[in-house]
Design goal:
Elements: E1 20-24, E2 27-34, E3 41-45, H1 57-64, E4 73-77, H2 97-110, E5 116-121, H3 123-134, E6 139-145, H4 180-194, H5 202-215, H6 224-227, E7 245-250, H7 259-266, E8 271-275, H8 288-299
Parallel strand pairs: 3-4, 3-5, 5-6, 6-7, 7-8
Antiparallel strand pairs: 1-2, 2-4
Helix pairs in contact: 2-3, 4-5
């Protein structure tokens, strides 16, 4: 595996093919897919307020080309209130957190996929946990990246708090939605604060942020994810998750320090992959030599404990 994809940049959305739409229950969700739908599907679920661009295009291409008995069919999508998906006025979401979780199923239905390897980042990792609890028939495996527990447990108070340097990071008004430059700068500043030491690449981040802002109907509407009511609680506990689970966490995650270890310990049979130097972010290219073989193993077989056949 190489830590980069020649000819494909982090914001090269064209490499993933045309944008398509899942339309169901009055909601329109924009998604892209790469690869053959007959191959195992990897569904990428992004973080709070994030359009699909924050799953960088070169990472998506690398995932589609994982070693193993099959290539992968990779799908990423814009949450509602991000990108080109259904967008509400800022401060007035007409949906619940449960709706945001179930949007993943709407995307799978539109893509003609019954069950997927769900890879969730931050809020997306919580969504993956909730889907595994209530829709295990739709989740072949779960990969939980830079996230924490989606359902409460008796020892939640023991989880380490966020790093003090994040205090106030999200305070203050959002930039003018028409001020593209200010919106990009805000996204770059946020990513800089959340990224692990030595893994922040300003050019890479700026390219992704610019594409995400320019594609969005209203780049400030993603804040509605914080304002939405949670909706009907998801049933069960982490001990009830029965799908094969891989927990991927950075050793320098300032938002959820140490939460990866606690999450893996709470899910039966879960494996923990700690990525040295990674913060609260999509895994950066310098981690791919470790990450991609683990994902090949995890998604390449109905038994993730078995290492899949290598090509050649």
């Amino acid at each position: 595996m190489t830590a980069g994809v020649p000819g494909v940049g982090p914001a090269d959305g064209d490499a993933l093919g045309p944008e398509r739409y899942a339309e169901a229950d009055g909601v329109r969700l924009c998604y892209q897919s790469l690869g053959d739908p007959a191959d195992p599907t990897v569904l990428l679920v992004g973080g709070v307020g994030s359009p699909m661009d924050w799953w960088p295009a070169d990472l998506c291409v690398a995932l589609a080309d994982l070693d193993g008995p099959h290539r992968r069919h990779v799908v990423r999508y814009d949450h509602r209130d991000t990108g080109r998906s259904t967008t509400c006025p800022p401060g007035a979401p007409d949906y619940t957190g449960r709706d945001v979780t179930e949007d993943a199923l709407r995307v799978l239905d539109a893509a003609g996929v019954r069950s997927a390897h769900v890879v969730g980042l931050s809020m997306g990792g919580a969504i993956a946990q909730e889907l595994a609890l209530e829709h295990p028939d739709r989740v072949t495996t779960a990969t939980l990246v830079a996230t924490t527990r989606a359902v409460s447990g008796p020892d939640d108070a023991e989880l380490p708090p966020s790093a003090p340097e994040l205090d106030g990071l999200w305070d203050g008004p959002a930039p003018d939605p028409a001020d593209t430059a200010a919106l990009v700068e805000a996204a770059v500043a946020e990513d800089r604060a959340l990224t692990g030491r030595g893994t922040f690449d300003e050019g890479r981040t700026r390219a992704v942020a610019t594409r995400g802002v320019e594609r969005s109907i209203d780049p400030t509407a993603g804040g509605n994810h914080f304002a939405a009511e949670p909706g009907e609680p998801f049933a069960g506990t982490l001990a009830d998750i029965a799908v094969p689970t891989l927990v991927v966490h950075g050793t320098e995650d300032p938002l959820f320090p140490g939460h990866g270890e606690a999450l893996a310990a709470a899910i039966p049979g879960a494996r923990l992959l700690l990525l040295e130097g990674m913060g609260h972010q999509a895994p950066p290219p310098e981690t791919w030599d470790v990450l991609l073989p683990e994902l090949a193993r995890h998604t390449g077989s109905s038994d993730p404990g078995a290492v899949p056949r290598q090509d050649g």
